[in-house]
Amino acid sequence: MADDDDEEIIQEFEPRKTISDDTLKDELDKQIDVVNRNAAYQIRPPISEKFKALAVKEVINAILHEELGGKEYSDEDSVKWTKNIVTNVKLSVKELGFKRYKLIVQTILGQNKGSGVKVGARCLWDADTDNCASDSFLNDTIFCCVIVFGIYSY
């Protein structure tokens, strides 16, 4: 009787179907294709979306002449002028449409008494994607320097 049970068990057991290497490779290739089609993350910006220093410099120049043209230096007004310049430059540069760029605007405004001023800046960045633009304004009583850094967010 024990032999009959063993025979029944053996007869009921069917071996698994094996998958050929070619079938497995085809399935894996299909999954890789789906992943590649869904991978839209870009490491670098397209050329059309890169930070354009010349366009930013023109924006800075226009805002400096608009804000400071025909004015004389005043201690009380210099803080307000500086804040206006920073805000207007940042908003205008954002309108240029540099996607995924973090903008840093540095403005130095002071009284022009005939002495020289040197302004410098250093950054550690990716030379392929990041850039900066600067412009300055000078009249008889005011000097102003604006630097805009465009740092690409990965």
Describe this structure in words.
- This protein has 154 residues and is an alpha+beta fold.
- It has 2 domains: 2-38, no CATH class; 47-152, 2-Layer Sandwich (Ribosomal protein S3 C-terminal domain).
- The chain has helices at residues 2-12, 21-38, 53-68, 75-94; strands at residues 101-111, 131-138, 142-152.
- The protein has a 3-stranded antiparallel β-sheet with strand order 1-3-2, with helices on one face.
- Strand 2 and strand 3 (142-152) form a beta hairpin.
- Helix 3 runs antiparallel to helix 4 (75-94).
- The mean pLDDT is 86.
- Belongs to the dynein light chain Tctex-type family.
- One of its GO terms (biological process) is microtubule-based movement.
- One of its GO terms (molecular function) is dynein intermediate chain binding.
- InterPro entries: Tctex-1-like, Tctex-1-like_sf.
In short:
With 154 residues, the protein is an alpha+beta fold. It is built from four helices and three strands; from the N terminus they run H-H-H-H-E-E-E.
What's the arrangement of secondary structure elements?
Elements: H1 2-12, H2 21-38, H3 53-68, H4 75-94, E1 101-111, E2 131-138, E3 142-152
Antiparallel strand pairs: 1-3, 2-3
Helix pairs in contact: 3-4
Shape call: rod-shaped
Which value, in Å, is the CA radius of gyration?
33 Å
β content, as a range? 15-25%
What is the fold named in CATH at topology level of the largest domain? Answer: Ribosomal protein S3 C-terminal domain
Mean pLDDT: 86
Please name the CATH architecture of the largest domain.
2-Layer Sandwich
User: How many domains make up the 3D coordinates?
Assistant: 2
Terminal-residue CA separation: 73 Å
Secondary structure class reads alpha+beta
| Sheet with the most strands: spatial strand order | 1-3-2
Overall strand count: 3
Low-pLDDT residue spans = none
What's the tally of helices?
4
The CATH superfamily name of the largest domain is Tctex-1
Which sequence of SSEs, written as H and E, runs from N to C?
A: HHHHEEE
Helix content percent band: 40-55%
Overall CATH class of the largest domain: Alpha Beta
